[in-house]
């Protein structure tokens, strides 16, 4: 979509993307930088209109529309409370052990599910379960059990998997199509589906939040200080509705993004066996040198792994950028953009241009190694920028690192089918089934 427009109009153009919503697209990283400079204290974005309607209709359950949707003071009030626990390295590092166990279970499940061709049927769905199980370590403060064999329809993990997937479907359907439903939202099928599935997510999340609060009381009594993200948030003066709403938002933002990104990395490694071998060697050496213990130091000692993740997010990004609108007119590339206009800041598109990356179509994790020439910082920013940037980025990175280590330790990844690209479905997703062949490593 952007490629043709870019060739016709250049690095700034206006487009009617969604019915009634005109966007100005910005692809020039210098102009993206300028746009971010207008963020101020309360950067504004518009998204997930139906979820906003639903939450505003249910103020007994939700104190606001949530961190993804709210703007201004309401957004800020949540962000300041959750920012530190979500991004503080010492707190995020505490999840390394647990996330590593999730990856171990995932690989065991892959071995169990592999067919005679070495392929795992419906592999993307398995990645969704892995991502939900991983994020569940934060939102439910426990293992939910998504990777267990033979989940029944009625089991808690299966109900959660179905509910999260249904909410995504509604979000994608209502966000992308014409928004006629805004006139009568509660009468639509999508709203009813959203309502039913949100209630399921809300109930399960609340149950675990209450359990954590109880445990926290004991811990306080015993003066224990080793607390995780949910506990750190709960220890503040915060409305329960705000906590549950935030946890539901983490589930909304943290599953498709990490699972689709991981799918892209596995695919690019399968297509570039030479790079996969370099990565495998790095993982093997670092683990051997550290008695197979996985720690922050071990993750930091794997620059090639980091390079593979960065390079995959450049070549096959799950989001092409982010979006803002401003209270005042701004000027970009010499054009005056009136206040209130939606501006798409498309660093994901810039990242594939020869203006900013040599041989942009090539998968070259080496470009991200220490000492390599630094790219334009606004030509690759998969997690956005500034005070509203992705609050889950540290967790996402850690999750992906741990999964890749485990998968590469166990398997050589091959792919023998038609090339896979990304299609836009609210976030970008693989356009073909992930028919990887997983060959046991000796
Ligand atoms: C590869 C994985 C991911 C990518 C590429 C990604 C990307 C993004 C981007 C581009 C934004 C908008 C930033 C901006 O407007 O400047 C964002 C926001 C957000 N992300 Fe992520 N994300 C990922 C994983 C996660 C995970 C795992 C979580 C939860 C644990 C998460 C939670 C959020 C939240 C809550 C926001 C809204 C922040 C706010 O508005 O204050 N993300 N993410």
Automatic annotation (TrEMBL):
It comes from the Eukaryota. It holds the Pfam family p450. GO terms for molecular function: heme binding; iron ion binding; monooxygenase activity; oxidoreductase activity, acting on paired donors, with incorporation or reduction of molecular oxygen. This is Cytochrome P450. Belongs to the cytochrome P450 family. Heme binds at residue 390. Keywords: Heme, Iron, Metal-binding, Monooxygenase, Oxidoreductase. Its cofactor is heme. It comes from Strigamia maritima (European centipede). InterPro entries: CYP11_CYP27_families (IPR050479), Cyt_P450 (IPR001128), Cyt_P450_CS (IPR017972), Cyt_P450_E_grp-I (IPR002401), Cyt_P450_sf (IPR036396).
């Amino acid at each position: 979509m952007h490629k043709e427009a870019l060739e016709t109009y250049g690095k700034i153009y206006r487009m009617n993307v969604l019915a009634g919503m005109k966007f100005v697209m910005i692809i020039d990283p210098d102009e993206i930088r300028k746009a971010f400079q207008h963020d101020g204290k309360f950067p504004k974005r518009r998204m997930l209109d139906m979820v906003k309607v639903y939450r505003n209709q249910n103020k007994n359950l939700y104190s606001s529309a949530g961190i993804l949707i709210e703007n201004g003071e309401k957004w800020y009030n949540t962000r300041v409370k959750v920012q530190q626990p979500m991004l503080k390295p010492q707190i995020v590092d505490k999840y390394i052990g647990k996330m590593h166990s999730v990856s171990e279970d995932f690989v065991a499940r892959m071995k169990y599910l592999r067919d005679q061709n070495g392929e795992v049927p419906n592999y993307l769905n398995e990645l969704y379960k892995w991502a939900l199980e991983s994020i569940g370590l934060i939102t439910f403060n426990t293992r939910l059990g998504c990777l267990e064999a033979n989940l029944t329809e009625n089991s808690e993990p299966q109900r959660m998997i179905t509910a999260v997937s249904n909410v995504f479907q509604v979000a994608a359907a209502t966000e992308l199509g014409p928004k006629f439903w805004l006139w009568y939202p509660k009468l639509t099928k999508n709203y009813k589906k959203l309502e039913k599935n949100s209630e399921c997510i809300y109930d399960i999340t609340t149950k675990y939040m209450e359990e954590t609060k109880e445990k926290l009381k004991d811990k306080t009594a015993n003066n224990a200080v080793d607390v995780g993200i949910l506990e750190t948030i709960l220890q503040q003066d915060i409305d329960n509705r705000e906590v549950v709403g935030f946890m539901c938002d983490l589930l909304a933002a943290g599953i498709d993004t990490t699972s689709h990104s991981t799918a892209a990395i596995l695919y690019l490694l399968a297509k570039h066996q030479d790079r996969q071998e370099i990565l495998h060697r790095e993982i093997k050496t670092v683990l051997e040198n550290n008695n197979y213990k996985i720690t922050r130091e071990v993750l930091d000692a794997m620059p090639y792994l980091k390079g593979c993740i960065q390079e995959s997010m450049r070549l096959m990004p799950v989001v092409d950028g982010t979006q803002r609108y401003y209270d005042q007119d701004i000027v970009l590339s010499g054009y005056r953009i009136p206040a209130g206009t939606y501006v798409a800041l498309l660093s994901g598109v810039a990242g594939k241009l020869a203006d900013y990356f040599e041989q942009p179509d090539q998968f070259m994790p080496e470009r991200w190694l220490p000492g390599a020439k630094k790219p334009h910082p606004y030509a690759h920013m998969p997690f956005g920028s500034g005070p509203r940037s992705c609050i889950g980025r540290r967790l996402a990175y850690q999750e992906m690192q741990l999964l890749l280590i485990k998968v590469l330790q166990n398997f050589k990844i091959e792919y023998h089918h038609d090339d896979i690209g990304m299609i836009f479905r609210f976030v970008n997703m693989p356009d073909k089934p992930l028919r990887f062949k997983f060959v046991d490593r000796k």
